[in-house]
Amino acid sequence: MYEKITDAVEKNSKLILETERYLWKNPETGFREWKTSKYLADIFENLGYALTMAGDIPGFYTDLDTGIPGPKVLVFGELDSLICNEHPEADAKTHAVHCCGHHAQCAALVGIAAALREQGVLDGLCGSVRLCAVPAEEGIEIGFRESLRTQGIIRYFGGKDEFLHRGYFDGVDIAFMIHTTTEEKALIKKGAVGNMRKAVRYKGVAAHAGASPAKGINALYAATLGLSAINALRETFEEKDLIRVHPIITKGGAAVNAIPSDVTLESYVRGKTLAAIERENKKVNRALIGAAISMGAQIEINDRPGYHPLCNDDTLMEMTREAMEYVMGKNGVVVDQVYGTGSTDMGDLSAIMPVIHPHMPGASGTAHGSDYAIKNPQTACVDSAKVQLIMLSLLMSDNAKRAHDVMTNKHVPFASKEEYFERMQKLESAGDRIAYCDSGEIRVTSVS
Hints:
Elements: H1 3-11, H2 13-25, H3 34-46, E1 52-53, E2 60-65, E3 72-78, E4 82-83, E5 96-97, H4 102-116, E6 128-134, H5 142-150, H6 159-166, E7 174-176, E8 179-180, E9 186-192, E10 194-203, H7 219-233, E11 244-245, E12 248-251, E13 262-271, H8 274-295, E14 298-305, E15 310-311, H9 314-328, E16 333-340, H10 346-350, E17 355-356, E18 359-360, E19 363-364, E20 373-374, H11 377-396, H12 401-408, H13 417-425, E21 434-436, E22 442-444
């Protein structure tokens, strides 16, 4: 039934696999993916696509219209890598490495783009396809992204949020992408948790650590007390909310013989719902602020909205199962109604339109770990492209009946991107949180 599609992908398998190897060897982190973006853009332009470039940040999109009115379906490949110092193939200077498999997504996107140019692949389809190479899915290097925000280059820390904000997804009806997994079978989950991102700065007073420590205020001690206080909160998190808090110290002091006066942390607060994230974030802030007070330090907390919880569309889940079973066989696909405890900015799109974010096998090791690798690029890249083209065919054939079913029966929490962004901006807060008064009174200005 889908031989024409799978043959078109196989015809371009050399290009797909070459793309996977190049991107693996040239990893770049979020909003720095200039080399990656250009490499992919050159391929797309050689295939005859006209691109809309993001311009001041990496990434692009292109449309392919069937010439017959119908829905617009958006398909992604994510450009960015992670940082993992211990990975044996990490970049020697930046420590960047594709230990989440986004490079395989991009290789699959190239396969989709190439196959759609093959004769007969668009026959019987209506509507249009938007192919998008999007930056910055991984929520890392928060300080760097804050600097981009301060400069007015970006408004949001995630690539899909930023593209959505810029209007690059206006007119899109349905969106999907396929991630890699280290599981042995293709996997379709109901969804994933969202998150809030935190940049925390403890401000103390420097002093000689040996001669006059009493004259200082130790910001590092305040920070470690704050981390301990967060750990003491963990048993108050309810299992149903899937809360995850995992702070790191990004700056712990300048010199071993000086009391640390400037210590910074980064963290997420993850959860299954926005309400749970907001509630538990207040607890976390209370713990961090209390630790600062105990040492007489000041604390600055900058909270930014991360990703909305992901909820995959039920109709799209069933359609994806069909496509995956065609390629992987009925025993090669697992459908699970659970929510994963990782986060993705596909969740932000799921807040306003029907989406699906499933996983294809082909990777090995531990995601985000030092042993991660693509062990089967045929499955992770070539077969992934086949599945996604079959998904497009299911959505856009038969006068787009399946797509219209999805659109008619969609359940999304926000009616528009404007309504969504207005809600997410309520999660933002920034600034010092303690007022030390001459009278000895100590006031907490805000925990939210």
